[in-house]
Structure formats: C-alpha cells, structure tokens
Inverse folding.
C-alpha cells in the first residue's frame, strides 16, 4: 500500500526540499519505489537539489492540464533506478493547481509507487494546503528557532483540519523532523533544545538533523545528502528517520557537541 | 528572568517562555481565526440598515490588555444631504476639500 507523505513547515528555508530529497533517496536505497513531488509552483527547486534540473520536460501542471501523461512527466533518477521526480511548473500560474487535478495525480501515483513524498511550498496558501491535502502522514520540518516553531504549530493545526483524512474524522500521522540543530548552542542555552521544541509542539520526533556543511555541499552538487555522503552526520540522521518512517524501532540519539578525535585534534571549528 | 539566569543560561529559556505564552493564545483563537472579520461584517450590517456610510472608512481595532480587551469600531458617517446631492461631482468635491470631522457628527449624520 502506498504511503503519501507531505514534507511541510510553514516557514521557508528550514530544509523541506533538502529533507524531501534526502529521505526520498534513503527510501529508494532500501529498494522502495519512491516519487518526490514538487508542489512549489513558480519556485520549483526540488529538481535542482536532485540534480535533474536539465531533464525537466513536463511538470505537474502539464499533467493536471492534460498536456502530458503522468509517465511523461516523471523523471527517473540517474543514480537510483526506483527514485522518481515529478517537478513543479516554473510558471506562476498557481491557479492551475486544482483540487481535483491533484486528487487524480495522487491517485495515479498511489498505483505506481510505495512512497509519494510531497514537497510543500512555504506558507499556508493554496500550494501548501494542496500539498498536504491527500497526505497519510506529515513530516514537519522545524528549526530550533522561535519563528520556525511558531509556524510549525500553525501547520500542525492545518494538518488537523484541512486534510482529506482530517475531514473524514481520521488523523494525519505527524512526525517532527528537527533540522539545523546545533548541539553546542543548545547545550550552552543559546538555542532551543530538543526537549523544548518537543514540549512546545507535542508532536512525536522523527529525527534530529545536525547543522552541517555536508547539506550545503549536497545541494551544491545536486545530490541528496543520503547519496553524496551517506556516512556524514546529517545523512545518518536521515537514514535513521527513514527507518522510523518504515516502522523500524531506531533509538533516538540527541547529537552531542562534536568531541570526536578529529575535533579534539583540531579544536572546535565552528561555534 | 533574572540577569544572573540570563548570563548563566543564554537566551533559549526566554525563547521557550515566549513561545509557550504565544502559542497557548494562538491555539485558543485558532478555531475562530476570523472572529474580527465576523464581528466587522455583522456590526456593519446592523449599522448600514440605519445609516449610510462608506465601508472603506471603517476602522476596527482590538486592544488586548491584561484583564480586559477593548474593541473599538470607528465608522465615518458623512452628512446625509451631501450624500443625496443631485450633482455627484460637486458632492465629491465637497468631500475632498472639507472632510467631515469625525466623532462629533452622529446627530448631523442621522438627520
């Protein structure tokens, strides 16, 4: 049975697209058939983060409008054969994203894939509500920072009211993914701690992705971080999160300040 | 939050406290997010049954205090004879050059 996931946050720039790409690639490496869908009409970026920007011919809007068939718009990843991308359109015509159109596309994707990961645009407008509309589960990406936490709370409210599942009296499973976590700053009381965020949002934790230059490097080269450097700290965090999504019981380790061998040797590089 | 605590623990506890207060309020109002919109519509509907006014010239403000909040509805009501002026451009000119002073015009506006 297919799982429809929405990766959402309210606030922009917290790591929705990075997380969509990383989790999609992680699931595909386990042999799951995955499609990542970009809902950010007019500001698509998932194609760029996935390194497929030059292979986009048709997009989600074309499929909804009937200009292209779904298989024509799906881009198969060059590294992982069971990972696909459905790009957003780069034109600004957001009205083309219709409720019925999305319902049809999602239904068709459900037949073809094990996992459908919808990368939501920032905000709480049409694009964001349509991205979450058909979700079975939601990943709320949050930075340990006041505006991000507040927006996540708002998004959680929408997930509980504006989704098909919620309207049927059912519940969308919610998972909190804390990204850009800096253990040192949290330990020094300069940044909200994991416990703070969990207590405020009271949503189950899916994973903690530490702040890392590997994430930037991955987007620079257009490879999900779970492919570009699978052993890096953020990649391992995403792999753990992926296993939890699949129902595995993976112990949650709160990243501590990097006091590894190299760090001790060279001192702390970044505050 | 003492200064000592601030120095010792950084600013995260302040962030946490602010968020907890803010979100408890926002969650309360989430189920009726457009209370102000509904109030505005219904209040204006009642008043427009009796007085003619420009819906653009209405201000509704809410001030939240510690124990009470105040809702202020400020409606600009033009003089009726000007509204009924048979020469539209003339009446408009009159409006532009001498706008009716606010607040003191209730009786005038109603006659």
């Amino acid at each position: 049975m297919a799982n429809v996931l929405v990766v959402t946050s309210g606030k922009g720039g917290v790591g929705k697209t990075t997380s969509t790409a990383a989790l999609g690639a992680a699931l595909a490496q386990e042999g799951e058939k995955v499609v990542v869908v970009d809902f950010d009409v007019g500001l698509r970026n998932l194609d760029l983060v996935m390194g497929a920007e030059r292979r986009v011919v048709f997009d989600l809007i074309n499929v909804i409008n009937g200009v292209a068939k779904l298989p024509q718009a799906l881009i198969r990843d060059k590294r992982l054969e069971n990972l696909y991308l459905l790009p957003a359109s780069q034109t600004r015509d957001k009205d083309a994203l219709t409720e019925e159109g999305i319902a049809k596309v999602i239904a068709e994707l459900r037949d073809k894939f094990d996992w459908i990961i919808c990368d939501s645009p920032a905000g709480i407008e049409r694009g964001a509500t349509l991205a979450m509309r058909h979700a079975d589960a939601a990943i709320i990406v949050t930075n340990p920072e006041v505006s991000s936490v507040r927006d996540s709370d708002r998004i959680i409210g929408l997930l509980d009211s504006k989704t098909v599942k919620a309207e049927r009296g059912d519940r969308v499973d919610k998972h909190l993914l804390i990204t850009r976590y800096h253990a040192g700053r949290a330990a020094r009381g300069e940044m909200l701690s994991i416990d703070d965020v969990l207590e405020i949002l009271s949503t189950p934790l899916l994973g903690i992705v530490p702040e890392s230059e590997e994430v930037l490097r991955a987007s620079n080269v257009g490879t999900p971080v779970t492919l570009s450097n699978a052993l890096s700290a953020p990649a391992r965090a995403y792999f753990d999160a992926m296993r939890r999504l699949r129902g595995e019981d993976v112990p949650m380790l709160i990243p501590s300040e990097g006091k590894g061998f190299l760090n001790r040797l060279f001192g702390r590089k970044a505050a | 939050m003492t200064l000592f605590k601030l120095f010792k623990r950084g600013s995260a506890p302040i962030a946490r406290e602010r968020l907890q207060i803010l979100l408890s309020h926002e969650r309360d109002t989430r189920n009726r997010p457009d209370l102000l919109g509904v109030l505005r519509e219904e209040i204006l509907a009642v008043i427009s049954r009796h007085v003619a006014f420009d819906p653009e010239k209405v201000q509704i403000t809410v001030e939240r205090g510690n124990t009470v909040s105040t809702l202020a509805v400020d409606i600009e009501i033009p003089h009726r004879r000007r509204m009924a002026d048979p020469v539209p451009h003339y009446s408009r000119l009159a409006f532009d050059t001498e706008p009716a002073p606010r607040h003191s015009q209730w009786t005038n506006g109603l006659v």
Observations:
- The mean pLDDT of chain A is 92.
- The first strand of chain A starts at residue 3 and ends at 8.
- Chain A has 14 helices and eight strands.
- Strands of chain A lie at 3-8, 34-38, 75-76, 83-86, 115-119, 137-142, 173-181, 205-210.
